[in-house]
Amino acid sequence: HIRSSHPTFQAAKVSAWSATDKAKLVQEVLQMVNDQRRNPYSKVLRTGSATRGLVSDAYNDEQQDAIIWTTNLYLGLNRDKDVIAEASKALHSFGTGMGTSAAASGMTDLHLEFEKEFADLTGKPSACLFPTGYTANVGAVAGILGRNDVVIIDQLCHASIVDGARLCGATIRTFQHNNASDLEAVLQSEVSPYRSAMVVLEGVYSMGEGAAPVADIVKMAKKYGALVLVDEAHSFGFYGEGGAGICAAQGITEEVDFIMTTLSKAMGSIGGVVAASQEHVDLIKSSSRAYIFQASVSPADMAAALTSLRRLRADDALRARLWDTTRYMRKQFADAGYDLGTGDGPIVTPHFSDKDKLYAIVQEMYKRGVQTSAVTYPIVESGRGRLRFICSAAHTKADVDFTLQALLDAEREVDLQLSKNKELEL
Ligand code: PMP
Fold this sequence. Notes:
Order of helices and strands: HHEEEHHEHEHEHEHEHEEHHHHEEHEEEH
Strand content: 15-25%
Distance between the termini: 40 Å
GO molecular function, one term: pyridoxal phosphate binding
Strand order of the largest sheet: 4-10-9-8-7-5-6
Number of domains: 3
Protein name: Amino acid adenylation domain-containing protein
Bound molecules: 4'-deoxy-4'-aminopyridoxal-5'-phosphate
CATH architecture of the largest domain: 3-Layer(aba) Sandwich
CATH class of the largest domain: Alpha Beta
Largest sheet: 7 strands, mixed
Keywords: Phosphopantetheine, Phosphoprotein, Pyridoxal phosphate
Number of strands: 15
Number of helices: 15
Structural class: alpha/beta
């Protein structure tokens, strides 16, 4: 459940590893520091926005003007002038931080309105806010389930879901990615009248696929009486009417018990939210440690998210722009001969059979003014890899054209270097 094979990211998984694995990881990280090898993802934005800016490596002041494809600001609302105006109004009227958790006195009207309007848009009676998407998943899973229960997770689900399951001590089982019949086999062996079962999946996974077969999975879960949580982090805001998400798009809102999303992607702010029945929300709010023992979202971030929520609900043109750029990018890259897999969503991932040249391509593209990332094992099959471009409504077709040219040039350069190295070896 780590999102990159880079050692820095592998560190996130150490708690699940044996002591020997951990020691190996520590060695690898120390070696990396010694070699002054840079983490290709750790760029700092010096000025600019989600899609274009002056960036640099974290420990190096040398700046590069770059088109940025590595953030999940799908609708570009982080730079919207109304969003910024409302955020600064809230900043001036409430100050910077809330100073306590939502369960104590860390709520304003903005927080309350956000919960109400998110619940309304997703078709649920109530909703519960968390300071991040990560803690929303942790809080929802661990707030609802206990050690006698079972959590059944799609094998590609996000780390926060796994961590919520670990925190509550429930039995954790996985089912094969997007596979309803494999889920049935797990349900048959795990569901019992003496404990609760929760099936957890994502509406869209972040590696360039399209919408997951959520309706099939949910139908299967319900056949065995399991609760269902759908994480809409990569679908809320641009699937379904008014951007309500995949559950709305597939007409299964009622059957899904918990609809979760983050405020940090399409809504361009920070926070997490879970919509559910009033009883379930009350249970989460009174039992979830992530809800009770953590400070709430700041007023400015809350105003930004609320304004974004209202805007995305009303503005079909914004969504259309994202989809238009997505389709254009997919077509241009496919016409240039890149294999993009079977997906159709805004995360575009050209596949490469040779993983070794991917990081070099990322560096070469960066030099040419394009910031992207590489994904290798264990996210994808061993030996293979993908580049990842996350489209936003703020990207233009000219950005796509520039990026494709940079990719073609970078790949040519890397191939040339590799063949020169081979000649030297001979
Ligand atoms: N769920 C999924 C599927 C995600 O991709 C992410 C973020 N990468 C999260 C939850 C956590 O959201 P946040 O970063 O806003 O905490």
